[in-house]
Amino acid sequence: MNKPIYLLFWSVLIMVCFTSCVKDTDFDQADDIVLSPVLELDFIYFTLDQSDYFNPNTGEQRLIVTDTTDFEILNESFVRDDLKRAEYLFKLENSAPISFLTEFRFLNENDEVVYEVAIPISAGSIAAPVLTEHIENIENQGILELTLASKVVVNVIIPSSFENIEGALNLQSKTTYFFEI
């Protein structure tokens, strides 16, 4: 009596295995896969105080402090092809009692401006620094312009001359690049 149950069990199991549903594998679906990596990087950071606004050789006051940084991360062909969006986050803390204007100019190899960001910064104080946050979201035509850049020029501009000023301007920035591969 044990043998018929055993045979029945195996017969049903074999029948289920041979009649179960099997879906054909469609390898063309691999073409529809889109990878969307995100790359976050520190961008530019600095702290400027009163001494940075004077020429160290002559002692003359400078109303513009300029710094140039190579910017070749976007020059690779795969980046140009796959970059869909870029987001720049600028955090500026001003503890000086004067206002500033910061300009970020993205230049191509011929030193022509291909993209520009200007951020006004309100006056602050040591006791109550002013925090300015700016997010620059770049897509479409802006991405095409940005990928032409080979360097970034940062200008920090004071609108008029000043006397002794306590405090500093602190910039921290980062960038996030969004790709589709």
List the helices and strands and how they pair.
Elements: H1 2-19, E1 38-49, E2 64-70, H2 77-82, E3 83-94, E4 100-107, E5 113-121, E6 130-139, H3 141-146, E7 151-157, E8 168-179
Antiparallel strand pairs: 1-8, 2-7, 3-6, 3-8, 4-5, 4-7
Roughly what fraction of the amino acids lie in strands?
Answer: 35-45%
Order of helices and strands: HEEHEEEEHEE
Alpha carbon gap, first and last residue: 64 Å
CA radius of gyration is 30 Å
Q: Describe the biggest sheet? A: 4 strands, antiparallel
What is the helical fraction, as a range of percent? 10-25%
Mean pLDDT: 89
CATH fold description: Jelly Rolls
The CATH homologous superfamily is named icosahedral virus
Number of DSSP strands? 8
* Number of separate helices: 3
Give me the secondary-structure category. Answer: alpha+beta
Which blocks of ≥5 consecutive residues have pLDDT under 50?
Answer: none
The outline comes out as elongated
Strand order of the largest sheet: 1-8-3-6
The CATH top-level class label? Mainly Beta
Structure description:
With 181 residues, the protein is an alpha+beta fold. It has one domain (26-179): icosahedral virus (Jelly Rolls, Sandwich). 17% of the residues lie in helices and 43% in strands. It has helices at residues 2-19, 77-82, 141-146, and strands spanning 38-49, 64-70, 83-94, 100-107, 113-121, 130-139, 151-157, 168-179. Strands 1-8-3-6 form a 4-stranded antiparallel β-sheet. It has a 4-stranded antiparallel β-sheet with strand order 2-7-4-5. The model has no long low-confidence stretch (mean pLDDT 89).
